[in-house]
Structure formats: C-alpha cells, structure tokens
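re: ur msg from earlier - yeah i can do the zinc ion complex, just paste it... oh wait u already did. ok heres what im feeding in:
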Amino acid sequence: MPNPLNTLAYRFLNASLQSDSAAQEIPSSLSRRGFLLAAAALSSCSAAAPLKPQAAAPVKTTSNSNYRTPAIQGPVPRNPDMALNSDFPNSAGVSFSRVLVSGNFIAMTFDDGPHPQNTPRLLDMLRARNIKATFFVIGRSVDLYPQIVRRTVAEGHEIGNHTHTHRLLSKLSDSEVRLELARCRDSVARAAGVQMRTMRPPYGGLLQRQREFVHAEFGYPTILWSVDPLDWKRPGPGVVTSRILSGTTAGGIVLAHDLHAQTVDAMPATLDGLLHRGFKFVTVSQLLAMKTDTATAQAAVAPANH
Ligand SMILES: [Zn+2]
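and the outut:
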C-alpha cells in the first residue's frame, strides 16, 4: 500500500482498534473527518480486509443466491447406530401427529421434494450425522429426479407418499384421492423399487373418513406432525432452528420442507442441537414400530384431527 493516505489510515485504524488514544496519533495536518473518509475508502479496498471486523456468517439471500452451506469443519455429533425394526402392524392406528414411545426418539420429516439442489445437500448433512429421516415426496418431482430418490433410499431414509400433484385432498373425490396416491406410489416404485408405508396429506388436509379409506385401501397411516416451524414462510434459518429446538419432545414428529434452501441452511444447527439434547433420530415407520401399549390408549382418546 504505497499510497500515503492509505498508510496513515491503516495506522489510524490499527491504533483505534487497540486503544482510545488513537486520536493522539492523528497528525495535525489532517482532520479527524479526513481520516474517517480515508478509513472508509480503505475499508472497501481488498488490501484492508484484515482490518475489517469479523464478518457475520454468510447466509443465502436474493443477492447471494449461489451461497452454499460451507463444508463441515471438524467433528459433528453423530446419531447412534440402531438396528431398529420398521415393521409396524396395521392395527397401530389410522393417523398420528406424534407417537408415545419409551425413549428419546424423534422422527425428522421433510416434505415436497425431491429438489435437485436442496435434497442432495440435506442428504450430505444427514449422512455426516448418521441420521435417518423420512421424506414425504411429490410423485411429479420423483418422476423428474428419480436418481435423488434412489440415493435417499440407498442411504437408509424412508420415503412416504405425499401425493402426485400436491392438491388439497379433502376437496377431492375418493377416486381422485386414490389416483393421487396411486400415481405417487408407482413413481416411487419405478424410481427406487420400494413400497411406501406411510402418507402425509398436503397441507395436513384429509378428512377422518378419507383417512380410514386410505388406511384400508393403501395400508398408509396418515402422518401429521407435532412440531411445525412454519419454515415454508422463510423466517430465516435461525428462526427455523429455534422453533424446532423449543418444540421438540420425545416421540415427536418434526415437519420441515427440503424444497426450501433456507430450511436446509437451518439443518446443521437444528440437527446438532437436537443431538446435543439427547434425541435419537428414527424414521416414521421405526417410530410407529416402537409405539407402546400406552400410546394405543392415548391415540384412541386424542385422535389427531387437523
Ligand atoms: Zn407438502
């Protein structure tokens, strides 16, 4: 930095960072205002980068749409290895917003994927932490990105039916509901060779009568949720994280959307926070398979009716 003004400004900034006596070092030939202007000019100079205060962690914004979550530095907490049964009986129940279990088990669920960028990014985060989640996929998107569904299954996650075109099922006829579920079922079978065991209605909208017919015909219990961070409103990753951390209890089913980049941005802190609180992640079917008898009684008196 040969420019003498910059050199002075550098000295001034350095001194002002260290003590309040910096003003004593200002030569009388230059006013304080001159120094502040010089300092301002300097701060936009790349050579002055070390002088700038530590920038806040970057987040994805409209002006920074290429932002990607940085690679994980150092060890992250890991979900324990668990050889869990995922076969639950048909008699387990018709619909659930949570499951009574003995133990700190929770199910993390992601709706509306697969998404070509956000879902693989999320899968990386889950894999680093040995977490298995449940993805309620839209059949139409499965047809577009079958390889992502294959990877999701290969990495031990569960796929659930979220219909083919994401319509509000409570407004549809039985035959339309049947078609929405059957088309998604067939898309997932084509893409990844698996039969789904659970479904989640778009917007949580499914009448009790419809839940019973879906359960009888498809064998799907309706899976709602106990924690809703309203992440689809894009409140910012920090808000998504704090809502999930404050709302999650044992047996809980957490709703989130891998469709949204902000939700995925929130996941490292969310997942690590839940692991630090002692929660163990399982898939929805695993959670249903560990349901206790007490839960049967509770579900009978308090059906979820969203
Ligand atoms: Zn949805």
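cool cool. Confidence is low (pLDDT under 50) at residues 4-32, 34-57, 295-306. ping me if u need the other ligands too
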